[in-house]
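Dear colleagues,

As part of the handover before I leave the project, I'm documenting each prediction I ran so the next person doesn't have to rerun anything. This entry is a single chain, and its sequence is reproduced below.
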Amino acid sequence: KILLFWVIMLPLCVVCGQSSAVAEKVSQSVYKIVVNKSVNVVAVIDGDGVLLYDTGYKGSGEAIEAAVKTFTQLPVKAVYNTHHHSDHTGSNAYFAERGVKIYATQKTIDKLQAADKMELWSLGENMNEWSDAHSGSDVTLYMNDEKVAVVGDMLFEERFPYIDTDAGGDVTVYLETQGEIISSLPADVKIIGGHGRVYTLEEY
Protein backbone atom coordinates (compact mmCIF):
# COMPACT_ATOMS: atom_id res chain seq x y z
CA LYS A 1 0.00 0.00 0.00
CA ILE A 2 2.85 2.37 0.84
CA LEU A 3 4.54 1.66 -2.49
CA LEU A 4 1.29 2.20 -4.38
CA PHE A 5 0.77 5.50 -2.54
CA TRP A 6 4.13 6.88 -3.69
CA VAL A 7 3.67 5.61 -7.24
CA ILE A 8 0.47 7.66 -7.37
CA MET A 9 1.80 10.73 -5.52
CA LEU A 10 5.23 11.16 -7.11
CA PRO A 11 3.96 12.50 -10.46
CA LEU A 12 1.68 14.90 -8.59
CA CYS A 13 4.61 16.20 -6.52
CA VAL A 14 6.62 16.83 -9.69
CA VAL A 15 3.76 18.84 -11.16
CA CYS A 16 3.38 20.82 -7.91
CA GLY A 17 7.07 21.67 -7.95
CA GLN A 18 7.01 23.11 -11.47
CA SER A 19 6.72 26.83 -12.16
CA SER A 20 4.15 28.18 -14.57
CA ALA A 21 4.55 31.19 -16.85
CA VAL A 22 1.91 32.50 -19.24
CA ALA A 23 2.51 35.29 -21.76
CA GLU A 24 -0.07 37.97 -22.57
CA LYS A 25 0.43 40.48 -25.37
CA VAL A 26 0.19 44.10 -24.20
CA SER A 27 1.37 45.99 -27.30
CA GLN A 28 3.24 45.34 -30.54
CA SER A 29 6.53 44.40 -28.84
CA VAL A 30 5.62 44.12 -25.14
CA TYR A 31 4.36 41.04 -23.31
CA LYS A 32 3.38 40.48 -19.70
CA ILE A 33 4.46 37.06 -18.43
CA VAL A 34 2.57 35.94 -15.33
CA VAL A 35 4.71 33.62 -13.19
CA ASN A 36 2.94 31.16 -10.90
CA LYS A 37 -0.28 33.16 -11.34
CA SER A 38 1.22 35.85 -9.14
CA VAL A 39 4.22 37.87 -10.34
CA ASN A 40 4.59 39.86 -13.55
CA VAL A 41 7.71 39.66 -15.68
CA VAL A 42 7.73 42.06 -18.63
CA ALA A 43 9.29 40.96 -21.93
CA VAL A 44 10.15 43.44 -24.68
CA ILE A 45 11.24 42.39 -28.17
CA ASP A 46 14.20 44.64 -28.95
CA GLY A 47 16.03 44.15 -32.23
CA ASP A 48 17.93 40.87 -32.08
CA GLY A 49 16.77 39.77 -28.65
CA VAL A 50 14.37 40.06 -25.75
CA LEU A 51 14.70 42.33 -22.72
CA LEU A 52 13.22 41.05 -19.46
CA TYR A 53 12.14 43.27 -16.63
CA ASP A 54 12.41 41.05 -13.52
CA THR A 55 12.80 37.26 -13.36
CA GLY A 56 10.12 36.03 -10.99
CA TYR A 57 10.68 33.43 -8.31
CA LYS A 58 13.70 31.18 -7.94
CA GLY A 59 13.19 28.18 -10.18
CA SER A 60 10.96 29.95 -12.70
CA GLY A 61 13.63 30.78 -15.29
CA GLU A 62 12.95 27.79 -17.52
CA ALA A 63 9.21 28.48 -17.51
CA ILE A 64 9.82 32.14 -18.39
CA GLU A 65 12.04 31.14 -21.32
CA ALA A 66 9.34 28.75 -22.52
CA ALA A 67 6.75 31.53 -22.31
CA VAL A 68 9.01 33.82 -24.37
CA LYS A 69 9.23 31.15 -27.07
CA THR A 70 5.43 31.27 -27.48
CA PHE A 71 5.76 34.68 -29.16
CA THR A 72 9.36 34.84 -30.48
CA GLN A 73 12.37 32.63 -31.10
CA LEU A 74 14.75 35.46 -30.27
CA PRO A 75 16.96 34.86 -27.20
CA VAL A 76 16.79 36.75 -23.92
CA LYS A 77 19.71 39.18 -24.13
CA ALA A 78 19.37 41.27 -20.96
CA VAL A 79 17.54 41.37 -17.63
CA TYR A 80 16.63 44.50 -15.69
CA ASN A 81 15.53 44.30 -12.05
CA THR A 82 12.92 46.86 -11.00
CA HIS A 83 13.87 46.26 -7.33
CA HIS A 84 15.52 43.67 -5.09
CA HIS A 85 12.65 41.54 -3.74
CA SER A 86 13.11 37.82 -4.30
CA ASP A 87 9.84 37.27 -6.17
CA HIS A 88 11.24 39.62 -8.84
CA THR A 89 14.90 38.59 -8.83
CA GLY A 90 14.70 34.91 -7.94
CA SER A 91 15.74 33.58 -11.35
CA ASN A 92 18.53 36.09 -11.98
CA ALA A 93 21.10 33.33 -11.53
CA TYR A 94 19.36 31.13 -14.11
CA PHE A 95 19.78 33.77 -16.81
CA ALA A 96 23.25 34.86 -15.66
CA GLU A 97 24.47 31.27 -16.00
CA ARG A 98 23.34 31.41 -19.63
CA GLY A 99 25.37 34.51 -20.36
CA VAL A 100 22.56 37.03 -20.02
CA LYS A 101 23.60 40.36 -18.54
CA ILE A 102 21.74 41.40 -15.39
CA TYR A 103 21.28 45.12 -14.69
CA ALA A 104 20.06 46.86 -11.54
CA THR A 105 20.45 50.04 -9.53
CA GLN A 106 23.29 50.23 -7.03
CA LYS A 107 20.91 49.87 -4.09
CA THR A 108 19.41 46.71 -5.58
CA ILE A 109 22.87 45.28 -6.26
CA ASP A 110 23.88 46.03 -2.68
CA LYS A 111 20.74 44.39 -1.27
CA LEU A 112 21.32 41.26 -3.34
CA GLN A 113 25.04 41.26 -2.50
CA ALA A 114 25.67 40.37 -6.13
CA ALA A 115 27.84 43.21 -7.41
CA ASP A 116 30.21 40.69 -9.04
CA LYS A 117 27.39 39.15 -11.08
CA MET A 118 25.39 42.25 -11.95
CA GLU A 119 26.01 45.49 -13.77
CA LEU A 120 24.87 48.96 -12.82
CA TRP A 121 21.72 50.08 -14.62
CA SER A 122 22.54 53.41 -16.22
CA LEU A 123 19.05 54.84 -16.48
CA GLY A 124 18.17 56.37 -19.81
CA GLU A 125 15.38 58.53 -21.15
CA ASN A 126 11.92 57.77 -19.73
CA MET A 127 13.43 55.73 -16.86
CA ASN A 128 13.36 56.79 -13.23
CA GLU A 129 14.73 55.46 -9.96
CA TRP A 130 12.52 56.18 -6.97
CA SER A 131 14.24 56.10 -3.60
CA ASP A 132 12.51 55.49 -0.25
CA ALA A 133 9.18 54.52 -1.82
CA HIS A 134 8.26 50.82 -2.03
CA SER A 135 11.57 49.03 -1.51
CA GLY A 136 14.16 51.78 -1.10
CA SER A 137 15.06 51.65 -4.80
CA ASP A 138 12.41 51.13 -7.49
CA VAL A 139 12.79 51.69 -11.22
CA THR A 140 9.95 52.63 -13.54
CA LEU A 141 10.08 52.75 -17.32
CA TYR A 142 7.85 54.36 -19.93
CA MET A 143 8.09 53.11 -23.52
CA ASN A 144 6.83 55.95 -25.66
CA ASP A 145 6.60 53.97 -28.92
CA GLU A 146 4.55 51.26 -27.22
CA LYS A 147 2.55 53.51 -24.86
CA VAL A 148 3.40 51.09 -22.04
CA ALA A 149 4.75 51.83 -18.56
CA VAL A 150 6.50 49.25 -16.36
CA VAL A 151 6.22 50.28 -12.71
CA GLY A 152 7.14 47.11 -10.80
CA ASP A 153 5.85 46.91 -7.25
CA MET A 154 4.85 50.54 -7.21
CA LEU A 155 1.53 48.98 -8.29
CA PHE A 156 -0.16 45.94 -6.75
CA GLU A 157 -3.51 44.71 -8.06
CA GLU A 158 -6.52 46.08 -6.21
CA ARG A 159 -4.74 46.78 -2.94
CA PHE A 160 -2.23 49.02 -1.22
CA PRO A 161 1.22 47.48 -1.73
CA TYR A 162 3.59 46.13 0.85
CA ILE A 163 6.07 48.85 1.86
CA ASP A 164 9.50 47.48 2.78
CA THR A 165 10.41 49.88 5.58
CA ASP A 166 13.38 47.73 6.61
CA ALA A 167 14.97 48.39 3.21
CA GLY A 168 14.20 52.11 3.19
CA GLY A 169 10.62 52.16 1.97
CA ASP A 170 8.33 54.86 3.33
CA VAL A 171 4.55 55.09 3.07
CA THR A 172 4.45 58.88 2.80
CA VAL A 173 7.21 58.99 0.19
CA TYR A 174 5.45 56.18 -1.70
CA LEU A 175 2.26 58.25 -1.96
CA GLU A 176 4.17 61.34 -3.08
CA THR A 177 6.05 59.29 -5.67
CA GLN A 178 2.82 57.90 -7.10
CA GLY A 179 1.68 61.44 -7.82
CA GLU A 180 4.88 62.14 -9.73
CA ILE A 181 4.62 58.91 -11.74
CA ILE A 182 0.97 59.50 -12.64
CA SER A 183 1.56 63.10 -13.71
CA SER A 184 4.40 61.98 -16.02
CA LEU A 185 2.34 59.47 -18.00
CA PRO A 186 -0.01 60.09 -20.97
CA ALA A 187 -3.73 59.39 -20.74
CA ASP A 188 -3.59 56.44 -23.18
CA VAL A 189 -0.82 54.52 -21.40
CA LYS A 190 -1.05 50.84 -20.43
CA ILE A 191 0.50 50.24 -17.01
CA ILE A 192 2.08 46.95 -15.91
CA GLY A 193 2.70 46.56 -12.20
CA GLY A 194 4.61 43.86 -10.37
CA HIS A 195 1.42 41.91 -9.76
CA GLY A 196 -2.00 41.70 -11.40
CA ARG A 197 -3.63 42.91 -14.58
CA VAL A 198 -2.77 45.75 -16.92
CA TYR A 199 -4.14 49.12 -15.78
CA THR A 200 -5.20 52.33 -17.49
CA LEU A 201 -3.94 55.64 -16.14
CA GLU A 202 -7.39 56.47 -14.77
CA GLU A 203 -7.53 53.15 -12.88
CA TYR A 204 -4.03 53.67 -11.51
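The chain has a mean pLDDT of 90. The two ends are 55 Å apart (CA to CA).

All the best with the project,
I.
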